[in-house]
């Protein structure tokens, strides 16, 4: 809300005489001059503007009548202390022999009334002085060489827009708006208080430090509050803090507006309230908060009110107990309290400000006609009073005023030194141009008596350092400001904000830190999921999916586990995946191993039976040499399945496939040789057939040749691309399948295809010999065995390709065992039956079919 004001600027006007009476031209002031509330003459004049009064009566404006003077009321004792601190610093400088020696410093202090209208009149009064006539030229210099003030950013901006035109330096002790750091717009502005650019970010870090991600915000509806809150909201967003609401109030606004703001705060769910308010707006807000019994909030304040002793000693202290905020570092100004206690209206009996101060302080009146009010004598003792004026326990802003005055003095001192001698005097007026004062102010670098160094950066700002204070109660019930941490913007990120370990008092004297979040924290194993239409701090918790984890609370997203890891049951950490392979320890592996050993044992039993009856006609007719070799190869076939069980290694991977290929090639080669022998033997018995019979050496050669060909294929396979252990993470997401990579799939399928080729050839030949005459025709048994063998391996291929994980190996073992048992039973079971149970059929005549 902006004041609508009509200001009569005091422009000089050239007044010319009519006729020939006179050619004299004078530069005169239109309107009435402004007079300072406190002043002192000197060779150097430092202006001051303070909000000594906090209320203003706006005159009724008319286009026909001259506006009536503005009346300021309700004296602000804190601001009056600031003005007296400025006077104290000037008196110290005048008494100094090293700073501005032999040069008297004076002052002119105006009341800005915390109003842009009064601030405009104050800056015009500081520039023009009280003289109505300036002679023949209007190019005179300002009546002051520099200005200290004001306490509000808005009023400071108004003054700068006028004084900046003439490059008059203005040093503020309390205007913190970051907008004032714009050197292009305000080249003559300096301040001894850090910019809100740093305080707003410090507040955001403070809120984040205590885990408050859901806060409310209220601000002054002026440059100070609006700029500071905008910076805070931006910084809070970067810190992951959300602002539930942001309301503005003005001390000149309606009561209904303040009621509405307090209602918004009451209805909000945030338990932390960031109050970026000027002192006067804070007073207005607390009055309404007390009326509506607004309690239980954790207040986080700006430097404007967080160390206000007046608020701490009033009825608002219960509401504000536990408040946190950043304040300007406290200092001690030696001699200031004694100086303040000497202020008395008898010093200047005609000074209305001193009389008003005395009346408010002691509750008396200098006018005897007032009823029920005691008469002021002027001899009352300030030593007996404890109010914001006499309280020097928290000298923070007062110290900024003190530094501002000394900064002007040091700048002028560096300008007026006319020689090397310290006490050498010179003509002050010849050197003090405002733009030169600005230049030297930029270069000042000195240390005050408290040890604090004063200097300005390129934007006219001091070093940004704050104390973090906490409102705590003493056993006696008094409220004190306890420093619990600090913030130094000059330090690197991560080291700027520090806590000193002091116990903190929270809202309503609670020992427990309040919780202020929009949504409860997501535990480890969950991630935050945004809720549509809600701020980022309002979220729901969603469990991480399989294979993803979040190992901390309030994780924004789940992270996927590395390739060989998987999430545990609560998705809080990654654990190694289960290694899966067909082992002897599990049921399926143990059963397959048992069947393998059983088959090998059974084959050895058959071997022993055949060896026992090796001289009988049945065994001789079965080609005993090839039968024994076949039984040996079948034993190896049963045993080679054991190489597929257990954790794959380099040797086991190379052995399992090559052993399988060679043993089955040997087995089928023996059956093929037996089939060819039977076929050639019967064909040789036909009349006129001159074909040679398949002799024993030829049989051995054929078996050896067929087997060596498979051996050659396996050697080439192992040489070029041998099988190797492989961790298969693609087939299953939650486990690692340990398997043998074929190395070269071509080699595997060539080995398997070669066995199939032998089996087909054997089947065809056996089929051709199935009807040859004889009681014992082995071709029939071979034909049936090859049918089973082929059926097993034809069904093996799709089952092998589609089986997952360890079942792939189990399918291959099952195919080996099934085909081996098929060969064993089909070829040798009938013979063993005759050898053991039907010995009468084990004769040569029966073999030749002559028993019939």
Walk me through what this model shows.
The structure is a single chain. The chain contains 22 helices and 31 strands. It has 852 residues and is α/β, with parallel strands linked by helices. The strands form 10 sheets. It has an 8-stranded mixed β-sheet, sandwiched between helices. A 6-stranded mixed β-sheet has the order 3-7-4-8-9-10, sandwiched between helices. A 3-stranded mixed β-sheet has the order 29-31-30. It is rod-shaped, with a radius of gyration of 53 Å. The N and C termini lie far apart (131 Å). Residues 1-23 and 688-692 have low confidence and may be disordered.
Summarize the structure.
41% of the residues lie in helices and 17% in strands. The protein is an alpha/beta fold.
List the helices and strands and how they pair.
Layout: E1 12-15, E2 26-29, E3 38-40, E4 44-50, E5 53-57, E6 71-75, H1 77-94, E7 105-111, H2 116-128, E8 146-149, H3 153-163, E9 170-172, E10 189-191, H4 196-209, E11 214-220, H5 223-238, E12 242-249, H6 255-267, E13 272-276, H7 279-291, E14 298-301, H8 309-312, H9 317-320, E15 324-328, H10 336-341, H11 352-362, E16 364-365, E17 374-375, H12 397-416, H13 434-442, E18 445-447, E19 453-455, E20 465-473, E21 479-488, E22 497-499, E23 526-530, E24 539-543, E25 548-549, E26 559-560, E27 565-567, E28 574-576, E29 578-580, H14 587-612, H15 617-621, H16 624-640, H17 650-684, H18 696-720, E30 724-728, E31 735-741, H19 745-768, H20 778-802, H21 806-837, H22 844-848
Parallel strand pairs: 4-7, 4-8, 8-9, 9-10, 11-12, 11-13, 13-14, 14-15, 16-17, 29-31
Antiparallel strand pairs: 1-2, 3-7, 5-6, 15-20, 18-19, 20-21, 21-22, 23-24, 25-26, 27-28, 30-31
Helix pairs in contact: 1-12, 2-3, 4-5, 12-13, 14-16, 14-21, 16-17, 16-21, 17-18, 17-19, 18-19, 19-20, 20-21
């Amino acid at each position: 809300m902006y004041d609508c004001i009509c200001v009569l600027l005091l422009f000089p006007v050239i007044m010319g005489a009519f006729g020939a009476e006179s050619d004299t031209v004078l530069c005169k002031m239109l309107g009435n001059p402004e007079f300072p509330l406190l002043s002192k003459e000197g060779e150097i004049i430092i202006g001051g503007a303070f909000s000594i009064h906090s209320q203003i009566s706006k005159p009724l404006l008319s286009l026909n009548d001259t506006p009536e003077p503005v009346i300021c009321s309700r004296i602000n004792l804190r601001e009056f202390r600031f003005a007296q601190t400025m006077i104290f610093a000037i008196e110290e400088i005048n008494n100094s022999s090293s700073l501005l020696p032999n040069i008297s410093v004076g002052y002119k202090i105006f009341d800005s009334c915390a109003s842009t209208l009064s601030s405009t009149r104050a800056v015009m009064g500081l520039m023009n002085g009280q003289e109505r006539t300036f002679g023949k030229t209007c190019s005179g210099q300002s009546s002051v060489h520099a200005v200290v003030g004001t306490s509000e950013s808005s009023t400071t901006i108004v003054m700068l827009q006028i004084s900046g035109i003439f490059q008059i330096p203005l040093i503020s002790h309390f205007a913190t708006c970051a907008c004032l750091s714009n050197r292009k717009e305000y080249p003559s502005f300096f301040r001894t208080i850090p910019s809100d650019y740093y305080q707003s970010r410090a507040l955001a870090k403070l809120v984040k430090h205590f885990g408050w991600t859901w806060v409310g915000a209220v601000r002054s509806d002026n440059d100070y509050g609006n700029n500071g809150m905008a910076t805070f909201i931006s910084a809070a967003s970067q810190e992951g803090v959300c602002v539930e609401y942001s309301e503005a109030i003005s001390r000149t606004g309606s009561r209904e507006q303040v009621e509405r703001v307090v209602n918004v705060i009451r209805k909000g769910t945030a338990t932390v309230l960031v109050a970026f308010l000027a002192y006067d707006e804070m007073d207005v807000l607390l009055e309404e908060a007390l009326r509506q019994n607004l309690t239980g909030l954790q207040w986080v304040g700006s430097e404007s009110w967080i160390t206000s002793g007046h608020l701490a000693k009033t009825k608002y202290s219960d509401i504000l107990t536990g408040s946190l905020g950043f304040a300007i570092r406290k200092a001690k100004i030696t001699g200031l309290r004694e100086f303040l206690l000497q202020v008395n209206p008898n010093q200047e009996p005609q000074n209305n400000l001193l009389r008003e101060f005395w009346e408010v302080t002691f509750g008396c009146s200098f006018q005897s006609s007032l009823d029920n009010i005691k008469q002021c004598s002027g001899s009352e003792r300030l030593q007996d009073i404890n109010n914001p004026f006499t309280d020097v326990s928290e000298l923070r802003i007062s110290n900024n005023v003190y530094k501002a005055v000394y900064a002007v003095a040091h700048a002028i001192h560096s300008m007026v030194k006319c020689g090397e001698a310290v006490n050498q005097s010179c003509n002050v007026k010849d050197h003090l141009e405002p733009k030169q004062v600005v230049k030297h102010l930029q270069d000042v670098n000195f240390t005050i008596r408290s040890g604090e160094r004063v200097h300005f950066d390129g934007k006219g700002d001091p070093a940004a350092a704050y104390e973090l204070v906490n409102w705590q109660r003493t056993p006696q019930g008094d409220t004190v400001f306890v420093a619990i941490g600090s913030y130094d913007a000059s330090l690197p990120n991560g080291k700027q904000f520090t806590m000193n370990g002091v116990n903190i008092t929270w809202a309503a004297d609670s020992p427990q830190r309040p919780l202020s979040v929009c949504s409860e924290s997501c535990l480890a194993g969950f991630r935050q999921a945004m809720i549509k239409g809600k701020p980022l701090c309002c979220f729901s918790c969603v469990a991480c999916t399989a294979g993803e984890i979040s190992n901390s609370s309030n994780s924004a997203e789940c992270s996927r586990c590395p390739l060989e890891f998987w999430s545990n049951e609560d998705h809080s950490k990654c654990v190694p995946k289960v290694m899966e392979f067909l082992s002897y320890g599990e049921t399926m592996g143990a059963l397959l191993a048992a069947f393998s050993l059983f088959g090998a044992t059974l084959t050895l039993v058959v071997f022993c039976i055949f060896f026992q009856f090796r001289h009988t006609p049945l065994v001789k007719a079965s080609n005993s040499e090839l039968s024994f070799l076949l039984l040996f190869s079948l034993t190896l076939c049963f045993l080679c399945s054991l190489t597929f069980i257990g954790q794959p290694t380099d040797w086991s991977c190379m052995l399992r496939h090559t052993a399988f290929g060679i043993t089955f090639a040997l087995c089928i080669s023996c059956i093929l040789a037996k089939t060819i022998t039977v076929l050639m033997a019967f064909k040789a018995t036909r009349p006129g057939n001159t074909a040679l019979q398949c002799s024993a050496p030829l049989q051995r050669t054929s078996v050896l040749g067929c087997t060596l060909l498979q051996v050659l294929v396996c050697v080439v396979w192992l040489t070029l691309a041998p099988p190797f252990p492989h961790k298969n993470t693609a087939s299953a997401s939650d486990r690692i399948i340990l398997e043998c990579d074929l190395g070269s799939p071509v080699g595997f399928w060539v080995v398997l295809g070669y066995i199939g080729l032998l089996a087909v050839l054997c089947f065809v030949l056996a089929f051709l010999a199935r009807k040859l005459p004889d009681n014992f025709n082995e071709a029939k048994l071979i034909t049936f065995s090859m049918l089973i063998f082929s059926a097993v391996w034809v069904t093996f291929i799709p089952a092998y390709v589609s089986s997952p994980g360890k079942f792939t190996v189990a399918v291959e073992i099952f195919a080996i065992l099934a085909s081996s048992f098929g060969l064993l039973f089909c070829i040798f079971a009938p013979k063993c039956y005759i050898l053991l149970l039907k010995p009468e059929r084990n004769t040569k005549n029966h073999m030749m079919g002559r028993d019939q």
